[in-house]
Amino acid sequence: MQKNTPNITLLPSSDVKAAAQLCALAMADNPLHITVFGQAANKRQHRLTRLFNGLLPYINRNGDLLGAYVDDQLVGVLGRLRPLSCQPNWQDTLRLIPTLLTSNSALGLLKTCSWLNNWAKLDPGTPHWHLGPLAVTPNVQRQGIGRQLMDCAINQAEGVNLYLETDKLSNVQFYQSLGFNITATPLLLGTQTWLMLKKMR
User: Which string of b and e fits 129-168 if b means at least 16 CB within 10 Å?
Assistant: First the structure.
């Protein structure tokens, strides 16, 4: 594969399952995911794949998914929820219930709900693009693909602020290099997280 030359485009619905597998693989070792989905790597990745199989269609309904392709192979994904659309309505909640019930154990379900509810409560009150997940296939990470996905989202923001959450310090530094600032550092389930905003006005 050529380095740093991805084709960034809207992800077709036919690639959503592949995107879910990519997200689960790329984000399997995120600290929050280990806390919520367990220490066993294979089980954790399987559970994350189930979660993203439900979460990505929700993002697509309320925003869109960007895909990065190299030689027609999907190597990166970025979700974008439209301004004023990042909190699920009752129809979205009903659609997500089977995903939540089948993607974890009973204890894990409680952890998932605690994690997502706490992040939702901290969402900015002003209109914003809500970004995430951002994932790049492990064997092509650190080649600029994530940056190009983010640059695309920033360039298409049309003057509206961008917001995201992360649980990795290395991600914080990456987002800061793109102009994001830390707005809060909540501790969730004993795990440090960072909330970040890029003001576009």
Answer: bbbbbbbbbeebeebbbbbbbbebbbeebeebbbbbbbbb
Encode pLDDT of 78-136 as tens digits: 999 999 998 888 898 899 999 999 999 999 999 999 999 999 999 999 999 999 999 99
What are the pLDDT digits (tens) for 143-169?
A: 999 999 999 999 999 999 999 999 999
Give strand pairing partners of 77. Answer: 67, 135
**Residue 55, exposed/middle/buried by CB under 10 A (0-12, 13-18, 19+)?**
buried
Q: What is the pTM of this model?
A: 0.94
Neighbours of 11 (CB within 10 A): 23
Per-residue pLDDT at 89? 87
What is the average pLDDT score of the chain? 94
CATH of 7-198 among 3.10.50.30, 3.40.630.30, 2.102.10.10, 3.40.50.40: 3.40.630.30
Domain extent listing, the chain: 7-198
Number of other residues whose CB lies within 10 A of the CB of residue 195? 19
